[in-house]
Amino acid sequence: MASDPLYRLLAWLSPAYPVGAFSYSHGVETAVEEGLIKDRASLVGWLDSVLRRGTGAVDGALFAAGWRAASAGDWPSFDAVAERAAAWRGTAEMALESRQQGGSFLSITRTAWPHQALDEAHRRLEGELALPVAVALAAAVHGIALEQALTGYLHAFTANLISAALRAVPLGQTDGQVALAALESAVHDTAQAAVAVESLDDVGTATPLLDWCSLRHEIQYTRLFRS
User: Fold this and answer.
1) Is the model's pLDDT at 13 over the cut of 70?
2) In a 10 Å sphere around its CB, with 0-12 CB exposed, 13-18 middle and 19+ buried, how is residue 126 labelled?
3) Whole-number average pLDDT of the chain
4) Nearest of 215, 86, 59 to residue 150 by alpha carbon
5) Is 192 strand, coil or helix?
């Protein structure tokens, strides 16, 4: 059977891929609770910041660094990126969100789209891998171009948070698609900025409200999501 990189990427980033993404809101639930997200416009503004100055910027840079190391077969460098990704989380919930999804992604992909490099990474890292680095690894060893894979990853991340907002605000399905369309440039710009990063030491975040919402969510009385 011929290999189809686009087919694999679409499968891995589909909402149907069983990594548990639907159960995480990445702080959106608390932002809704606190009135920071209350309609489509405020949702778009919130996610634009998350992409350009928060998790999108960090995970995008980690994704690009992990993809390059895996593509070159430089496993010590890849493992160093994986270690940094595991530590680069502002709250316990954010760490759980990325670690659980990354571990699930690696386990499922090793079964459905096996590759020796996935098995070896699983062994070296004991199955613990942050989601952006896990997806970057699979994309690299399966021959999916960095820009294509990273843009797809950031699109899926954004779409999942919009889905969470639709359930929490609530908003209609049309509002969700309009929001996703409005964030196209943010996804594209974030991907391009991540590809251009030369050193992870130069990457940082500027979204304190996102971290605050995550911390608040840990003690929020009524919750639909795990983060």
Assistant:
1) yes
2) exposed
3) 93
4) 59
5) helix
* Per-position b or e across 38-64, b if 16+ CB within 10 A of its CB: eebebbbebbbbbbbbbbbbbbbbbbb
Q: How far apart are CA 115 and CA 221, in angstroms?
A: 43
Tell me how far apart the alpha carbons of residues 39 and 101 are, in angstroms, rounded to a whole number.
28
Please give the model's pTM, rounded to 2 decimal places: 0.95
Contact in structure between 146 and 67 (CB atoms under 8 Å):
yes
N-to-C CA span, the chain: 40
**How far is residue 1 from each of residues 4, 109, measured CA to CA in Å?**
9, 17
Q: Is the pLDDT of residue 63 over 90?
A: yes
CA distance 227 to 218: 8
As given in the structure block, the two tokens for residue 223 are 């919750």
Rounded distance between C-alpha atoms, residue 117 and residue 79, angstroms: 12
Q: With contact defined as beta carbons under 8 Å apart, do 151 and 115 qualify?
A: no
Distance between CA atoms of residues 94 and 53, nearest Å: 16
Cβ neighbors of 184 (< 8 A, separation 6 or more) are none
Q: Is the peptide bond before 76 cis (omega within 30 degrees of 0)?
A: no
Q: Is 158 helix (H, G, I), strand (E, B) or coil?
A: helix
